[in-house]
Amino acid sequence: MLSILRNSVRLNPRALGIVPAAARTLASVQVSKRLLTNSSTLLQKEIKDDKPKSILTNDMLFKAGVDVDENGQAKNEGKREAEEVEGEGQGQNEPSSKGEKSKRRRQTSTDIKREKYANWFYIFSLSALAGGTIYMARNWEPQEEEELKKDIGNGYTMSLMYKRFKARFNSMFTYFQEPPFPDLLPPPPPPPYQRPLTLVITLEDFLVHSEWSQKYGWRTAKRPGADYFLGYLSQYFEIVLFSSNYMMYSEKIAEKLDPIHAFVSYNLFKEHCVYKDGVHIKDLSKLNRDLSKVIIIDTDPNSYKLQPENAIPMEPWNGEADDKLVRLIPFLEYLATQQTKDVRPILDSFQDKKNLATEFDQRVKKLKAKFHGDGSNGNWALKALGVTNDMGGSQKFPLDLIHEEGQKNYLMFMKMIEEEKEKIRIQQEQMSGQTFTLKDYVEGNLPSPEEQMKMQMEKQKEVDALFEEEKKKKKSAESK
């Protein structure tokens, strides 16, 4: 009813025939209602603007690492409010650029410190880079390698400085590409103890083969004839075991193949290779040996790519039993016993080096047939093989005589090895007890070096006596 009356008053209260007193009453009601509505709106605004106060005190915020201003508000909150104000200002006015926005943004003391330290870091880095570049472009020094200075002179022109910088910069990377030493092996022993040739043998997939299975994990198999191959050829060759794997993986395998270092003279590993064109190469020129007296047997062509004329390539061994190691022995024995001046022309004479053992066996069979078919004791064959005719009237083929002599030496050598192993075993048993305690070291009750030497000599005599007793027992047991 009030709404009807209000609408009627808006139109014309006099036209409806309402008295002025009634019109005034309706107008006062309308004004009071409007004031009530405005007061409720003000109350709502006050409730919205009344923000809840935080229970965190200024001390608690300071301990937590929050910067607090004088009014007790976190500076980050003030920063957010400033950003909101900037956003509102940009919405009303023209949009500002990113540079202006970053200038208006408030920074805390932590941000200022970070920028300061970052600027100092950039300045220091640039100064160090510039100083290092100038230092590497300096003139050559007398102690620097001649190879490095080749075709690059001194002077401070831009081109010469750039060349010197480039040469020195590249030499930094060659440090990681070259072996750790310029000579991987020490100088050879004097002639009475020197082997005529050096034989470099790979380990993986030639002497041993490793496989991994889910049931057993890693297992390593030794190739049939590996012990005989190493033991027999050690009387003719200086054997160098050059593994294609890192030392931490291959050293234990090499120790098991030759525990007392009787057959293998030196062990080399992947660390001693030259890294070039993305592959590791066994550079024979780094061995400190005459290349005309060096032979390498390997299953990877990349290993001998720098000296392919010295290589006998072999197919990788897959773990199955074969006799390829034993079949290589006659050819290698022939090379070592003929006082070969250069092994490379002999290796090049074979058409297929991978089947070198088969081709050499065919050549020997032909020579044997002519030797036994000729009535002159095969003097021409002796000359062809480089053997002097000091065999008397023997009708045996020269290579057979050489092999028989080598077999006798091998048996004698293996007997010495077994005796040495037995001595080492007895010595380890005798020396297994602790000679000196920690108390002796602390109190200084250690014997003098002369007394220690006497004790070692006495222990060695005991070991020799025990060894002789066991040797006699074995002989008596064998005679029975």
TrEMBL record:
Its main location: mitochondrion. GO terms for cellular component: TIM23 mitochondrial import inner membrane translocase complex. Transmembrane segments: none annotated. Essential component of the TIM23 complex, a complex that mediates the translocation of transit peptide-containing proteins across the mitochondrial inner membrane. Belongs to the TIM50 family. SMART domains: CPDc. Residues 192-335 form the FCP1 homology domain. This is Mitochondrial import inner membrane translocase subunit TIM50. It comes from Saccharomyces pastorianus (Lager yeast). InterPro entries: FCP1_dom, HAD-like_sf, HAD_sf, TIM50. Component of the TIM23 complex. Keywords: Membrane, Mitochondrion, Mitochondrion inner membrane, Protein transport, Transit peptide, Translocation, Transmembrane, Transmembrane helix, Transport. One of its GO terms (biological process) is protein transport. Gene3D superfamilies: HAD superfamily/HAD-like. The lineage of its organism: Eukaryota, Fungi, Dikarya, Ascomycota, Saccharomycotina. Residues 451-480 have a biased composition (Basic and acidic residues). Residues 67-110, 444-480 are annotated as: Disordered. It is a single-pass membrane protein. The keyword Membrane applies. It is found in: Mitochondrion inner membrane.
